[in-house]
């Protein structure tokens, strides 16, 4: 398995798809990276040479914020919102939806399983 920016990418997939396994890289960014590196988009990850892998990793490190740095930035942004006490920060603190979704009958992903209901037989 080729290892790029600390992530083992799958060897049997095309390089455009394999790069999306890196946190912060989607299909569009992946295609841009492959084009910038001058690689064939249909090449499989197992057929990459060490030179190709180093090209991709230098492009990622110089131009994009991915993996650990991106996760750290996102968590710092959320902590900042919580500390200043804005509406979005309060929603994060309470574990409720942040972007205006309704909570009366949905939002089970954020709120967790139902509490306090006893079903009668």
Describe the structure.
The chain is mainly alpha-helical. It contains six helices and two strands. It has a two-stranded antiparallel sheet. It starts with a strand and ends in a 10-residue tail after the last helix.
Q: How is this structure best summarized?
A:
By secondary structure, the protein is mostly helical. Helices cover 49% and strands 3% of the residues. The protein folds into 2 domains: 3-64, Helicase, Ruva Protein, domain 3 (Orthogonal Bundle), CATH 1.10.8.50; 68-111, 30s ribosomal protein s13, domain 2, CATH 4.10.910.
- Residue fraction in strands: under 5%
Compute the number of helices.
6
Number of domains: 2
Order of helices and strands: EEHHHHHH
For the record, what CATH class of the largest domain applies?
Mainly Alpha
The helical percent reads 40-55%
The whole-number mean of residue pLDDT values reads: 92
* Biggest sheet record: 2 strands, antiparallel
**Ends: how far apart?**
54 Å
Shape: elongated
Instruction: Provide the gyration radius in Å.
Output: 21 Å
Q: Give the strand line-up of the largest sheet.
A: 1-2
Assign the CATH topology of the largest domain: Helicase, Ruva Protein, domain 3
Q: Compute the number of strand runs.
A: 2
Top keywords for this entry?
121 residues; mainly alpha; 30s ribosomal protein s13, domain 2; 2 domains; two-stranded antiparallel ribbon; 3% strand; elongated
């Amino acid at each position: 398995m080729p290892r790029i920016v600390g992530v083992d990418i799958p060897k049997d997939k095309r390089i455009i798809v394999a790069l999306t396994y890196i946190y912060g890289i989607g299909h569009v960014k992946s295609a841009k990276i492959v084009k910038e590196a001058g690689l064939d988009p249909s090449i499989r990850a197992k057929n990459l040479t060490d030179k190709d892998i180093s090209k991709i990793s230098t492009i990622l490190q110089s131009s994009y914020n991915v993996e650990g740095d991106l996760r750290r930035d996102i968590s710092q942004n959320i902590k900042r919102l919580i500390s200043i006490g804005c509406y979005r920060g309060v929603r994060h603190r309470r574990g409720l939806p942040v972007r205006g979704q309704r909570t009366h009958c949905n939002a089970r992903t954020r709120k967790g399983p139902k509490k306090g209901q006893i079903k009668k037989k």
